[in-house]
Amino acid sequence: MGPSDAPLRPIPVAAHGHGIQPHHHTVLPPEPDAAQRALDVALAQTGSAQLDLLKEVCRAHPSLLDGWARLGQLAYRAQDPVDAYAYSRVGYHRGLDRLRRHGWGGTGQVRWSEPSNRGFLRSLHLLMLASAAIGEQEEYLRCRQFLLDLDPADGLRVSDLPELGPGQLLDPERLP
User: Fold this and answer.
1) Sequence-ordered list of residues with C-beta below 8 angstroms from that of 82, at least 6 positions apart, any chain
2) What total number of domains does the chain contain?
3) What's the angle, vertex CA 74, arms to CA 71 and CA 75, rounded to 5?
């Protein structure tokens, strides 16, 4: 029996629907300097100026994962979980696309300890919280487990968060 005749072995699939192989770690490349500088300028602002600049950053750099995450966090802080859900979902899906382009393929770890992974993980974290807030309990639980599987070191301290139910918002000071 040659290698091509060997039976295929299934990859274990976790509760969130993704197979995770602990030996494979994906690290996204850093964001372009211009996009990161624009985000830093926006984050240094407060109030409506910050909101306007974050929207401009996302318009000018739609692939900037942390831009979408930070825009979603701003909506979450303003107690608007619907907008937070929408913004975080954009960052999450764009992040999945980027992870696949960089070797993830649906399996492996994506760790918070790698700064270039944080935009994606921050988006997924916010998607988890916003899902709970709008009553999408299954998605909340799936996102929570996905975060724990992607980063077993639990850099976002997801396991320390209280269980959230419909309409509940986490204290915004606990957002990463």
Assistant:
1) 130, 134
2) 1
3) 90
Calpha distance 56→74 (Å, rounded): 14
Query: Which pLDDT score, from 0 to 100, does residue 11 have?
Result: 43
CB-based contact 123:68 (threshold 8 Å): yes
| The pLDDT value given to residue 150 | 96
Residues 175 and 76 sit within 8 Å (Cβ to Cβ)? yes
For the chain (176 residues), the mean pLDDT of every run of 10, in chain order, is 45 49 83 98 96 98 98 96 98 97 90 98 98 96 96 96 89 92
Q: What is the DSSP string of 132-156?
A: HHTT-HHHHHHHHHHHHHH-TT-TT
* Predicted model pTM: 0.86
d(CA 171, CA 94): 26
Q: In which domain, by residue range, is 139 found?
A: 32-164
Q: What angle do CA 117, 122, 123 make, to 5 degrees?
A: 105
The verdict on residue 15 lying in a domain is: no
Distance CA 129, CA 13 (A): 23
Q: What is the domain-level CATH number for residue 75?
A: 1.25.40.10
